[in-house]
Structure formats: C-alpha cells, structure tokens
C-alpha cells in the first residue's frame, strides 16, 4: 500500500503535515510520523532481514539483524526500532556496504552458538533463520570452538517445549506473553551467552495463548509437544478454516497430511484475530480421530443400538417422525455451522411442521429468547473487534472473555494499552479483568440487573461517550431482568450492544431462527407478514404460526405427552437442564445427529453420524455477526447435517430440501434485511436474589475442560487451570479459612472441593472457577460453603 | 561393383568373431560384480552397536524428484531408543515403482543412513510388495550389533555417534552390499 496520495485537483502533491519524507536506497517516500524504518522500507519493496521485529509487538531491537546505515549517524542503526524523520537518508543492505557487512556479521554471530540440528528441528523447512542463512549467510563458519550447549528440550509447559541452544534471544515470545497475552510467565534470564528464556520455578507457562509463541518463534527454540516430529512443511496441505470452538471466530490455517490434521496455526485476519489464536483453537483437533466417532447410522433393535445402512436408518427415522407428526421437538447444540443450523430451521418448520426448536441446551430463559429476537437476530455486523479497539469504554456484563471468548480478551488488552477503559459487572474481579486493567463493578449473581440500574454517574458518562460498547455474555440468561436492564442501559447511553455467546454456532443459530418464536433473519413467528415472507422464500409452503416450545418446555412437554419425539443435534447431556435424562428416557422416539458417541446417543432410537466442521465446507458466524467461511481440509464419507436432513425430508415426502452449503447460504442471505415487525425487547423487572442460607454461586465454563471436542490431546489438557474457590477476605474470616485451605462447596446435585483463593468477590457470593456447573448448577444458585472436613 | 568374393568376405567377419572373447553374460547362473557406484536398492544403515542411523528428518523424501519416499519421524525416549539423538524414523517407505535410482536421497541424508546397494533384482508380480518398508530396508545385523531399541553406549551422547566413533570397523559409514555377496 502506498502512502503518498496524489491530490485529485492537479499535478501538485497536497502537503500533509502528518507525513515525513525520507529517502531509502535513493528512493524518496513519505510515510506517517512514527513509522519505523523497516516498515517504510517494506512499502518500497525493500526487505530488511529481521528476527525480533513483529508488527504487533513493541520494537525491542534485540536481534540486531536489521542493521542499516542512516546518514549522519555514526553507527549502523536497527531499522526495526528507529522511526522515520524528515529528510532522513537511509541505506539498506541493497545500497550500503556498511549495512550489508553489519548484517553478515550479525548473522555470523547468531550462528556461532546455533546448533546444526536442522534435520531434527521441527522448524526446519519453514525457519526464518534457516532461510536467511541460506540467502545471506556465509557458506562456512570461521568458528571452530565448541558450541554452547544446554540440555534439550525442556518443557516451559506440558505443551511448549524449549530448546535453548536454538534461541537467538529475539524476545518475541516474552514480549508476546507480556504485551499481548498479559501472561508474563516467561522471561529472558541470565546474561551473555547464557541468556535463555525461562519460567519461574514451579510456575509453568500455562497461558491460554502459549501456542502463539511457538508460531512467532523465528527459530526452532519453541516447539509444541503435540506437533513434535510429526511432519515437515512440504508434507502439509494448508487449508484456510474457521475455528469451531468458540464465538471469537478466528481464521485458522489447518495443515493436513494424508487426510489427517497435523497442526493448526492462527491465520492472519486483521479484522478478527489479527495473527493470534488461543490454545484450544490451535491444539484441540484430535477429537476428529477419536475412537468415539460415529461412522455408521445406528438403529435401536430389541433395546440395543446396532449398525444399520443409511436407507434403513432413514426409513426408521421417517416412520418415527411421521408417527409423531406435529409433536416433535428439535434441540440443537453449539457446534452447528450456520448452513446446517439453517437446514434444521427449515426441516423443523417444513417437515416436522412445528416451531418447537431451540439451540440453547445450556441455561436459558424466555427473556433471553426475546432479547435475542429483538436485538441480535438478523442484525448483521454489530459492534466489531475494531469498535472495541476504538472504544473509549467497554462494559462487560456477566462475561469473562479470557475463558468465554479469548480473542475478545486480546483485543481488549490491546485497546486497554491504548487507553480504553474496561469495566466489568461481575461476581469477582477476575485475573482476566486485571489483564485489561479493568475496573470491577461488584454484582452478586442474580443482582446484576439492579447493579446496572444504579450504575455510578461517571460510569454512565463513560458509556455515553461516542463509540462505547457493552458486551453481555450468555450467562446473563441466568439472572432475571439482566438482559432487559442491559438493553435499557444501551438505549439510555447510546452504547453499542454486543452479545457474546460461548460456542461457535450460537450466533449463526440465532440468525437462522433456531428459536421457538423466531424465523430466519429476525422474523417473528407471531407476525403474519414475516410468515408470508418466509413462505415465499421457501416456495409457498405453510409456515407453522404457533410459537413453539423452548427446551425446558419441550422436556416438560415430553413428560406431559405433548411432545413425543425429539431430534437432537450436537447436544451433550451435561449441557441440558436437570431432568433432561428422565425426559429423554420418556420420549417415544429420539433421533440423534452427531459426530461422537456420548451420553445422549444412549437414548436414541436412530443415530445419524455426520461430518465434523473440518470435514465440510461451510461457515460460522462469530459474535460480531461476521461470517467466517471455512474450507474443508479433510475428506470423509460422512454427510453434513444438511444432507442428512435433506435425505430424511425426501423420505418423509418433502423433496428438494437444499443441502449444498453455497445454496443454503444464498437462501439464508435472502432473509437478511428484514424491515418488518420485530419482537419487542424484553421488559422483565429485575429481582434481587431470594434470601436464603449459603452464598450465591458465581461460575463460568473454563476455556479448557474435558469435553468431546477437546479429547485426545493430553498436552493441552495438562495446561488447563486447576479449580479454585474464591472468597472475599470477609467471608473467609467468617468461615475461619485461610488462603490455600481446601473448601467444599455444596450445591443441590453435588459438591466441589478446591483450594481457597482470597479475591475481590461481591458480598454474599462465592466464585468457583473451572468446570463447576455439573456439580453445582448455573450462576446464581445458593450453595453451602465449608472448610473441607468441617461441613 | 559387386565382386564374386563378397559372400566369402562376409563369412570372414563371422569367422574372426568366432575367436573373439564372448561378452554374453551367463545370467543368472553367473553374476558379474557391478561397478562400485552402481545405484541399486537402498539400505538403511546402522551404527556398529546396532542403533539406526536414520533420524527421520525426511530430507530424502524432500529431495526425491519422484516422490518415492515416505517418512514419519517420532521421538526417541529413554525407554525406547532406536537412534542416537532425539528423533528417529518411525515409518520409512520407498516405493520402487516410483524410484528412479538417481541417488538424490543419498546426497540429502545428513547421517549417511541411506546408501544404495548393488542389488538390482527388483521385480514382483504385485504393486504392494514393491513398497519397501523400514524392516525391508534396514541393514542386516552384523556381529557386535544389538537390535534396537536400546540405549546409547554408556558415557556417550549422540555427538559421539555423529563424530564417527560408531562407524563400521572398516571406517566406512556403510558396508557396500554387493548382490553377489548376499548369496
């Protein structure tokens, strides 16, 4: 991109005061003030060799590889750390013998202690040092002494391995950890030739973002345990994909060899993930090769599931659904690509003839449904990552970005470093909030709505500024009145509102209308014009006009014999509300469409295996509302959800249901831009939690946990955080516990025992980190807290 | 101008040839030694204690112009060591339907694990058997060798191996296997 722009009026260049003009290799160029010489040279097509320089990290001039000559300066200067100034005359290695000699010498020094183990190094073949040594280095060495050696490799964490001999001390990893991820767990230790990256004793580099350091390491010093010796760059076929794990929507590069994924890297997408991703997205893909993958359809016969042919299974499912005509409910999970989600929306309405469809097996509420229909569905691109970066203030409501949408945390960190105020209405001041220098607004679970109504005037003023953003997480559904209050706050202050769900398919499911009161594109079921419009797109069919049941109502409906069959797609039993097991057992007919064999499959009458996200072409919609297209790195004989539904529809007499992802997306696009009636925003009065004994539980799902989609990757699992119980100092005193004591937290269906950490926790609340929802329930329930053994 | 002696002159050639040395080879009863640099079937060599020289670096596969070589590396552990150093070749395949015997793989090999023997009898009646696996390519155990996995010689590191301390007794990295020697 050129920075000098000719004025439209004539031949003269319009002077721009924010530009400086300098000469690089005899070519005059103008760049904005503050531009580094190395970037200005790049714009002219001059590549100055570098190792430590990274456009998203602060300059450090550690490797000295980019030395260039600047007229008037006595010694060669690092191009990556000197900013351009007016009238500067720069000569790179292209025109200056001094710069060329300086770079050759630095390369020679770097190679003195670098081992000659490229053949066994994982970076071999894609190594900047190797490439530059081949391009500019000397053919032979003048150094004949023994090289400095270290034991190798050592683990910085279970996942990240360090080979200190190979390190060129560029400090990319340490700067990333400190500046971008705010996990300063690694640091350059020692001095001179002994300089090395290291961790503190007993504190491993268990950052959620540690994999990025492996990717940006310009040598093979940091490698991953998972990818160790697995393949070479020339073996790999790279495919651009979107991450299927959360709603951040990272662009990934999936590298596969012989139809198996070898590794995944963060792809560059400046609008979304920049050049980063989280360790879950990077390392959690072995689930594709799991023994629990479903490969053939299954049919229940004499009480047992047995493999069946596709025809047999389709006939069985069609018969079951036909028998249950009009009384079938559809429950989908968060793994669906938007094309498949839309296919479920169409199938449920056209073939099953009902609006009983819901994508929220987690905790949900009618208020949330109304909120999503009114403020999220079909609204297109909402506040974006770029808006977060520009925002004067960002308010997080029941949303823990580090665990629930990690790339949001990285962008907030970047924004905070540039001056954005981050505030969080949360039960505790979490470590993630500390990483964005955030201000904590205490709110015990269940009382967030009241807290939002009584925000301090200065906070309201902050949110009233142009560009302010409010992000609300999916846990808000557990707090009555909260989503109403968030909407009203945004209406009052003018702040942009973003809803950040946890899973990759959630936003797409909202847009595709996987809610009982919502058709695709934000059209209300209750609105006749919306139904007519939908029917027109679907080809003059009847669209059921009665609003359907949400998941709790469906499960109740099973017990009341109003719902007799269930279609379950990508739903885990653990995610479903209490009592789901009984309902699944009571349902007359259950069809499961899934990738893995898990607890829900045991209740199925017919099971259809489907392709996982890396085995199909499609797209996710991230929390911004941005479509994240994903190509197919793996071939499989399994069908997509949409193809299964199309075949099932044909078996049930509705022919021609679309199954091609491109056609499905085109059809869904026809639903965009709805200008008719919308569901009105919710108006639920906030209530404060009912008084009772015990403390209010605050908890959220951690990034790394033992789920199907994180199975098969022990190194990743070993970097997960251990469970903790957070109490305020006051509560701990009342309990007679001190930091580190084992605390037992008991809920209605189980208990959790974990060490106590004293933290800033809202009055009357206790926070249990890690996976606690199975044992204790969702945020806002009352739990009993006791020192272990004294309960 | 044809002469009446021409047919006899023709027989002259025949008669002189009858007393020349014969170049016909009595293959397969007699097998002549190949030229020293003949490119025959590959051998994956061992160090003198039996550890494999191959480190699974895939440089041979990278160099191969016919895409005939497939390698998967894996990590040696203290309990299970196949080669000196961190890495060994877990899977090693050469497809002799593709191999053009150019020897680029030998040039690429950083440990002289891969050499070529004088064996040229590579014919078969099915394709699968012409994909040679690691066990087909590994050099046979000679005296003093112990089949891996086993530890490196006590008191040594991979550097001792790479420095040539465990090369074959005749000083070569690899014994040249002659087709005739095998019989």
Largest sheet of chain B: 3 strands, antiparallel
Please report the number of helical segments of chain B: 5
The major pleated sheet of chain A works out as: 7 strands, mixed
Our count of helices of chain A gives 25
The string of secondary-structure elements of chain B, in order, is: HEHEEHEEHH
Poorly predicted regions of chain B are 175-183
- Indicate the proportion of strand residues of chain A: 15-25%
CATH topology of chain B: Alpha-Beta Plaits
Calculate the terminal CA-CA distance of chain A, rounded to whole Å: 67 Å
Q: Largest chain interface and its two residue counts?
A: A-B, 13 and 16 residues
Structural class of chain B: alpha+beta
Low-confidence stretches of chain A: 1-10
Radius of gyration of chain B: 23 Å
Number of domains of chain A: 5
The quaternary organization reads as heterodimer
Describe this structure in a few short sentences.
Chain A has five domains: 19-111, Ubiquitin-like (UB roll) (Roll), CATH 3.10.20.740; 142-289, Alpha-Beta Plaits (2-Layer Sandwich), CATH 3.30.70; 298-359 and 507-669, 3-Layer(aba) Sandwich (Rossmann fold), CATH 3.40.50; 372-502, Dimethylsulfoxide Reductase, domain 2 (3-Layer(aba) Sandwich); 695-787, Barwin-like endoglucanases. Chain A has 791 residues and is of the alpha/beta class. Chain A is globular.
């Amino acid at each position: 991109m050129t920075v000098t722009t000719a004025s439209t009026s004539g031949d003269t260049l319009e002077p721009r005061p924010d530009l400086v003009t300098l000469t690089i290799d005899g070519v005059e160029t103008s760049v904005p003030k503050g531009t580094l010489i190395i970037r200005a040279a790049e714009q002219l097509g001059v590549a100055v060799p570098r190792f430590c320089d990274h456009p998203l990290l602060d300059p450090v001039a550690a490797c000295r590889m980019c030395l260039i000559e600047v007229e008037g300066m006595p010694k060669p200067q690092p191009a990556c750390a000197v900013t351009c100034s007016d009238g500067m005359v720069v000569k790179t290695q292209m025109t200056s013998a001094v710069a060329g000699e300086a770079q050759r010498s630095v390369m020679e020094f770097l190679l003195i202690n670098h081992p000659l183990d490229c053949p066994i190094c994982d970076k071999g073949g894609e190594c900047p040092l190797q490439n530059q040594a081949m391009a500019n280095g000397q053919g032979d060495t003048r150094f004949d002494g023994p090289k400095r050696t270290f034991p190798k490799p050592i683990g910085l964490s279970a996942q990240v391995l360090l080979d200190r001999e190979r390190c060129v001390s560029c400090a990319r990893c340490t700067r990333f950890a400190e500046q971008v991820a705010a996990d300063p767990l690694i640091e350059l230790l020692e001095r001179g030739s002994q300089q090395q990256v290291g961790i503190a004793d007993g504190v491993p580099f268990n950052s959620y973002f540690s994999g990025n350091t492996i990717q940006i390491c310009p040598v093979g010093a940091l490698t991953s345990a998972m990818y160790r010796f697995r393949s070479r760059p020339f073996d790999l076929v790279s495919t651009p994909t979107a991450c299927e794990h959360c709603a951040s929507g990272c662009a990934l590069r999936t590298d596969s060899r012989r139809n198996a994924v070898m590794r995944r890297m963060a792809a560059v997408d400046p609008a979304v993930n920049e050049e980063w991703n989280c360790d879950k997205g990077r390392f959690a893909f072995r689930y594709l090769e799991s023994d629990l993958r479903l490969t053939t359809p299954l049919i229940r016969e004499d009480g047992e599931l047995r493999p069946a042919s596709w025809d047999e299974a389709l006939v069985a499912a069609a018969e079951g659904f036909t028998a249950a005509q009009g009384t079938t409910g559809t429950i989908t999970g968060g793994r669906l690509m938007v094309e498949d989600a839309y296919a479920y929306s169409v199938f449920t309405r056209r073939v099953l003839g009902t609006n009983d469809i819901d994508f929220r097996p987690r905790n949900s509420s009618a208020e949330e449904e109304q909120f999503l229909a009114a403020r999220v569905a079909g609204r297109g691109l909402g506040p974006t990552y770029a808006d977060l970066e520009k925002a004067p203030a960002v308010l997080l409501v029941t949303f823990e970005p580090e665990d629930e949408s990690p790339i949001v945390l990285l962008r907030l960190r970047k924004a905070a470093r540039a001056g954005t105020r981050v505030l969080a209405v949360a039960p505790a001041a979490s470590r993630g909030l500390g990483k964005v220098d955030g201000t904590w607004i205490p709110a015990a679970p269940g009382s967030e709505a009241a807290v939002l109504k009584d925000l301090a005037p200065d906070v309201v003023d902050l949110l009233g500024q142009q560009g302010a953003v409010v992000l609300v997480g999916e846990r808000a559904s557990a707090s009555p009145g909260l989503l109403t209050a968030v909407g009203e706050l945004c209406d009052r202050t003018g702040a942009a509102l973003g809803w950040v769900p946890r899973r990759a398919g959630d936003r797409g499911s909202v847009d595709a209308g996987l809610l009982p009161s919502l058709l695709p594109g934000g059209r209300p079921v209750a609105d006749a014009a919306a139904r007519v419009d939908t029917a027109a797109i679907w080809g003059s069919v009847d669209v059921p006009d009665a609003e359907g049941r949400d998941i709790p109502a469906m499960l109740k409906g099973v017990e009341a014999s109003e719902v007799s069959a269930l279609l379950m797609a990508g739903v885990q039993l653990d995610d479903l509300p209490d009592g789901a097991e009984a309902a699944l057992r009571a349902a007359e007919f259950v069809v499961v469409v899934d990738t893995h064999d898990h607890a829900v499959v045991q209740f199925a009458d017919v099971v259809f295996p489907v392709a996982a996200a890396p085995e199909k072409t499609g797209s996710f919609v991230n929390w911004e509302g941005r479509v994240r297209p994903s190509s197919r790195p793996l071939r499989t004989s399994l069908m997509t959800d949409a193809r299964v539904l199309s075949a099932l529809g044909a078996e049930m007499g509705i022919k021609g249901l679309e199954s091609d992802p491109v056609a499905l997306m085109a059809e869904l696009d026809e639903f965009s831009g709805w200008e008719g009636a919308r569901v009105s925003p919710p108006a639920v009065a906030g209530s404060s939690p009912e008084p009772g004994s015990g403390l209010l539980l605050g908890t959220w799902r951690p990034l790394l946990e033992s789920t199907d989609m994180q199975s098969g990757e022990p190194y990743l699992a070993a970097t997960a955080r251990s469970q903790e119980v957070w109490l305020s100092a006051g509560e701990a005193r009342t309990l007679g516990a001190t930091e580190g004591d084992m605390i037992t937290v008991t809920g209605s269906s189980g208990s959790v025992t974990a060490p106590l950490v004293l933290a800033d926790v809202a009055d009357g609340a206790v926070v249990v980190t890690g996976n606690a929802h199975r044992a204790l329930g969702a945020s806002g329930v009352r739990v009993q807290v006791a020192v272990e053994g004294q309960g | 101008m044809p002469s009446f002696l021409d047919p006899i002159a023709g027989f002259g050639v025949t008669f002189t040839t009858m007393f020349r040395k014969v170049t016909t080879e009595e293959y397969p009863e007699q097998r002549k030694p190949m030229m020293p640099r003949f490119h025959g079937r590959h051998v994956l060599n061992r160090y003198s204690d039996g550890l494999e020289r191959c480190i699974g670096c895939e440089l041979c596969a990278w160099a191969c112009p016919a895409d005939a070589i497939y390698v998967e590396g894996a990590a040696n552990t203290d309990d299970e060591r196949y080669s000196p150093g961190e890495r060994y070749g877990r899977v090693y395949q050469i497809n002799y339907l593709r191999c053009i015997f150019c020897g680029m793989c030998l040039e690429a090999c950083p440990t002289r694990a891969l050499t070529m023997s004088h064996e040229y009898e590579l014919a078969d009646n099915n394709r699968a058997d012409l994909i040679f696996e690691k066990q087909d390519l590994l050099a046979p155990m000679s005296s003093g060798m112990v089949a891996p996995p086993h530890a490196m010689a006590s008191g040594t590191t991979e550097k001792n191996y790479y420095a040539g301390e465990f090369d074959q007794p005749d000083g070569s990295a690899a014994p040249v296997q002659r087709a005739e020697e095998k019989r």
